[in-house]
Specification:
This protein is α/β, with parallel strands linked by helices. The chain has 5 helices and 6 strands. It has a single domain, classed as 3-Layer(aba) Sandwich (Rossmann fold).
């Protein structure tokens, strides 16, 4: 049975490069992985005053989706050398209330995507930094910083650059191995 991977896309834009890559990854993922987006667009900003009897339904649904996944994959752009606000909010929503984090013990990986040459290096490492507190088990290698992404996709949405496609296939295979190894 395929491992369920919760995919969090850092860009809220419907036609973002990150969403395009996440969708392309679903097609090339090994049969042992099932990649499913967990939407973050409609999550109210985290506010501990809303915990308890008045928890927003969107928080509850989000937490259940992430909790039920076998692993998490973050696909994110870089905003101001860090994590986009929507993604940071999703991380916070999933980590609370304290002691009830949905992230804890899950294997995780990060792919950063950017039209620039650095490939979202700052965001990638900012997400990885949160893994320490979240108790996410990070896949260390290979790392994925996808730069010049505006030229990456074919008209059908697939990854049109052979070297990048081949790298993404190897990355997902390594992630599948990491998930299995982490579960042992």
């Amino acid at each position: 049975m395929a491992k369920q991977v919760a995919v969090l896309i850092g860009s809220l834009r419907r036609d973002s490069l990150n969403r395009k890559l996440a969708n392309a990854l679903k097609v090339i993922a090994p049969a042992t992985l099932s990649l499913e987006e967990v939407a973050i667009r409609d999550l109210p900003l985290y506010d501990s005053d809303l915990e308890g009897a008045s928890v927003p339904a969107a928080w509850t649904a989000f937490r259940q989706q992430v909790k039920s996944a076998d692993a998490v994959l973050f696909v994110t752009p870089e905003y101001n050398r860090s994590v986009p606000g929507g993604l940071k909010n999703a991380i916070d929503v999933g980590s609370r209330p304290y002691g009830s984090s949905v992230w804890s013990g899950k294997p995780g990986a990060v792919i950063s995507v950017s039209p620039g040459a650095l490939g979202g290096f700052g965001a990638n490492h900012a997400v990885r930094q949160t893994f320490v507190f979240l108790d996410v088990l990070p896949m260390q290698q290979p790392e994925a910083y996808i730069g010049n992404a505006a030229k990456l996709f074919a008209e059908d949405g697939s990854i049109g650059v052979t070297e990048t496609r081949d790298f993404m296939v190897k990355y997902l295979e390594a992630f599948a191995t990491w998930i299995d190894r982490s579960a042992a």
